[in-house]
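Thanks for the sequence, V.! I ran NAD(P)-dependent oxidoreductase right away. Repeating your input here for the record:
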Amino acid sequence: MSRPRLTILNQLGTATTRAIATSGAQVQVLDDACVSPWQQTAHAEILLTAPRNGWREAPQQAPPGWPGRLRWVHTASAGVDFYPRWLLDVPQVSCSRGVAAAPIAEFVLHALLAHTKELGQRRVTDPQQWHDGFAQVHTTPLGLLQGQTLGLLGYGAIGQAIAVRAQALGMHVLALRQSAAPVGDAGVGTVRSLPELLALSDHLVLALPATAATYHIINAHTLAHARAGLHLVNIARGSLVDQTALLAALDAGRLSGATLDVTDPEPLPTGHLLYTHPRVRLTPHISWSASNAVAATAEKFVVNLHRYLHGQPLLDQVDPQRGY
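Predicted structure:
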């Protein structure tokens, strides 16, 4: 029996190793989530890794000999801002773009409904509260997403998945994307600038990658254009938002609320105002989470593995110049 042509260092767990094994690809898999991946470049041609695999402790400069035998790195994340820049010195880097689009879109829809319906404030625990709440609804009815405008800053796989679900609820959807590519989806309008998107949106979802160009793209200047009562939702990266400017806009009443699944840094330091601000819903970077996340990531990698073995271009390659 001939020796496998390729060795893969898999850091995503045994379920991913099993998916590779059942794919029919003639490869050897080293299943080790604990090693520092940059110290294993002499042992593998392909690295399958995730932000949690020690990259927070990675050296700022490329280790001696990097990238060694590595010819391809696939990341379980869609963004590559978690990793040092030298990771992109590998001949090919691909990412799991689109894998988390559905769970993130569902998270966003929940955020929109929670903000608009305010059901948490309507909960009752005794008969008197029930009568008071029933009387209140005549003067202060529940909000309605139908007819409201959702702005999407970024229109990749996540933005598109959000748009489909928002339209099903009768929302108007506007999108502003970084590229010049047309949106092309029925019922999704476009705007020419971020100030225009802010001015027209009841809810604004940030769905951009973290790059030098998007750093603090939401700031005091851009927030000055926001429609009164705007609800900001950030499921992308904390660095997109100037958090000082956000707090000022919330305190001034220009924004009615903010749903933040990401912050800068993560986690925020003890005592940070965003933890306890009455108009902020803060979650610990979990919008991507889903019961099928591991399987979906493994499936995406296996598709690319077969393309790699057959000399075909990889899907969802990272552009080192753009950083995503």
